């Protein structure tokens, strides 16, 4: 149903929608400063919302009955001023490495369990306004609200916001019944996303189990589980014996161009079988691409992270016009070594641990390629066995990709619906 609109400082909204400031809407609660090492995923009396989980894991509306929320190890570490959360409270992540700072999750279905807000969060409780469960979670993660936050973000390497800076941001208050219908509609799409995410996670769990059994552990000469027809012992080989270093970008990221056509692959895009281009937002010009790289990456190159999250790997796809950032090195398989097999080899947790044993730096962990090439891995020289192992895991990866694409599709649908419904562009009443 079309309604008359009014022009406001945050854009056009229906005339019957109201708005009020953040400061008018919320009372800020006290949080704690516990780091991740002070939490566990097994048991405890009080659960804790960590800002990292808001940024990477928790949805707009946090169903405390379904989501895995870590527990506080030692309750004595909680300040007496730390306040317990309740249904309807919202928790803002006030720190991030990018403009995702300000992401919000709304607490729901807490039941009898106890929950607190942790490090780098701003927990808030409604003091004015009638809000349907879930409305604030969805609205405060929309572009309509987040765009209000952007001018208040501070920091260069680490972005942050303060509760004082966002006190005058505006909270939309549509009629309560309309809020409920909007939330219900978005929840239905979220359920589809959640279902596909569960499938992806189950397949990944199976894959990790197979990796641990189909690759030798702790330098054993043979894996626990073997494909039929193969019995020969595997060999210990240095990395330099089965790959060549292809690209390292001379230790720096090439100059960027907002109108460039060459995607720059960064660490955030790695970890799946192929780079995730939905997480690529930087590009190079033709000149930068041609003049600033030691070599070009090719299909089948293994992309390996060397700073921060060490050892994340992806297999390069056919987009050979892409470039990699300074925190990534590309390895190219030598003759008689199959790229898909080597990708699986590097994905094995035991082998990832080998790289992390030589990591340097505490604040920003890193690894030198000159050291990495001397790391020894247990592998098979049998090309046929490599092909079959590579094919086995490629089939699993293809299945993961299929369901991940479905999840991404629902995510895009949800974003479009949020843009239309949370602005009143499309009305449900």
Could you walk me through the main structural features you see in this protein, from its secondary elements to its overall organization?
The protein is α+β, with helices and mostly antiparallel strands. It has 2 domains: 18-173, Alpha-Beta Complex (Adenine-n6-DNA-methyltransferase TaqI, Chain A, domain 2), CATH 3.90.220.20; 235-379, Adenine-n6-DNA-methyltransferase TaqI, Chain A, domain 2 (Alpha-Beta Complex). 30% of the residues lie in helices and 20% in strands. The protein has 10 helices and 24 strands. It has helices at 22-25, 51-56, 135-139, 143-149, 176-214, 286-291, 339-347, 349-356, 369-372, 383-421; strands at 5-8, 11-14, 18-21, 26-28, 39-40, 46-49, 61-63, 71-72, 90-93, 95-96, 104-108, 114-117, 121-126, 159-160, 170-173, 235-238, 243-247, 262-265, 283-284, 302-305, 313-315, 323-324, 328-333, 376-379. A 5-stranded mixed beta sheet has the order 4-13-9-11-7. Strands 17-23-20-21 form a 4-stranded antiparallel beta sheet, covered by helices on one side. A hairpin with a 2-residue loop joins β1 (5-8) and β2 (11-14).
Topology:
Layout: E1 5-8, E2 11-14, E3 18-21, H1 22-25, E4 26-28, E5 39-40, E6 46-49, H2 51-56, E7 61-63, E8 71-72, E9 90-93, E10 95-96, E11 104-108, E12 114-117, E13 121-126, H3 135-139, H4 143-149, E14 159-160, E15 170-173, H5 176-214, E16 235-238, E17 243-247, E18 262-265, E19 283-284, H6 286-291, E20 302-305, E21 313-315, E22 323-324, E23 328-333, H7 339-347, H8 349-356, H9 369-372, E24 376-379, H10 383-421
Parallel strand pairs: 6-12, 7-11, 18-22
Antiparallel strand pairs: 1-2, 3-15, 4-13, 5-8, 9-11, 9-13, 10-14, 16-24, 17-23, 18-19, 20-21, 20-23
Helix pairs in contact: 5-10, 7-10
């Amino acid at each position: 149903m079309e309604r008359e609109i009014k022009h406001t400082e945050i854009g056009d909204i229906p005339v019957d929608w109201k708005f009020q400031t953040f400061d008018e809407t919320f009372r800020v609660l006290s949080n704690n400063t516990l780091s991740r090492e002070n939490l566990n995923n097994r048991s405890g009396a009080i659960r804790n919302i960590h800002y990292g989980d808001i940024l990477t894991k928790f949805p707009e509306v946090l169903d405390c009955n379904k989501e895995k929320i870590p527990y506080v190890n030692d309750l004595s570490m909680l300040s007496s001023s730390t306040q317990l959360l309740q249904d309807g409270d919202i928790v803002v992540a006030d720190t991030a490495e990018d403009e995702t700072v300000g992401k919000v999750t709304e607490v729901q279905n807490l039941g009898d369990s106890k929950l607190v807000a942790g490090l780098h969060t701003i927990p808030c409780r409604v003091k004015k306004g009638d809000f349907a469960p879930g409305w604030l979670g969805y609205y405060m993660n929309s572009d309509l609200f987040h765009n209000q936050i952007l001018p208040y973000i501070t920091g260069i390497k680490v972005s942050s916001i303060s509760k004082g800076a966002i006190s005058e941001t505006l909270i939309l208050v549509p009629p309560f019944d309309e809020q409920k219908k909007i939330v219900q509609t978005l929840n239905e799409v979220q359920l589809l996303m959640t279902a596909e995410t569960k499938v992806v996670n189950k397949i990944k769990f199976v894959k990790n189990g197979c990796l641990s059994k189909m690759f030798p552990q702790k330098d054993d000469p043979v894996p626990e589980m073997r494909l039929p027809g193969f019995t020969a012992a595997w060999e210990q080989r240095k990395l330099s014996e089965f790959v060549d270093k292809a690209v390292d970008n001379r230790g720096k990221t090439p100059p960027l161009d907002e109108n460039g056509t060459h995607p720059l692959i960064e660490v955030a895009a790695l970890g799946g079988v192929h780079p995730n281009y939905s997480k690529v937002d930087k590009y190079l010009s033709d000149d930068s691409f041609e003049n600033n790289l030691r070599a070009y990456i090719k299909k089948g190159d293994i992309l390996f992270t060397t700073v921060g999250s060490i050892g994340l790997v992806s297999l390069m796809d056919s987009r050979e016009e892409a470039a990699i950032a300074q925190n990534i090195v590309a390895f190219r398989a030598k003759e008689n070594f199959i790229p898909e097999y080597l990708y699986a080899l590097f994905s094995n947790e035991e082998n990832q641990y080998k790289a992390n044993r030589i990591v340097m730096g505490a604040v920003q962990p890193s690894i030198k390629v000159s050291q990495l090439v001397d790391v020894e891995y247990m592998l098979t020289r049998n090309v046929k066995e490599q092909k079959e192992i590579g094919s086995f895991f490629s089939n699993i990866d293809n299945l993961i990709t299929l369901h991940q694409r479905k999840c991404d599709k629902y995510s895009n649908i949800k974003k479009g619906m949020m843009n239309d419904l949370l602005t009143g562009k499309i009305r449900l009443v």
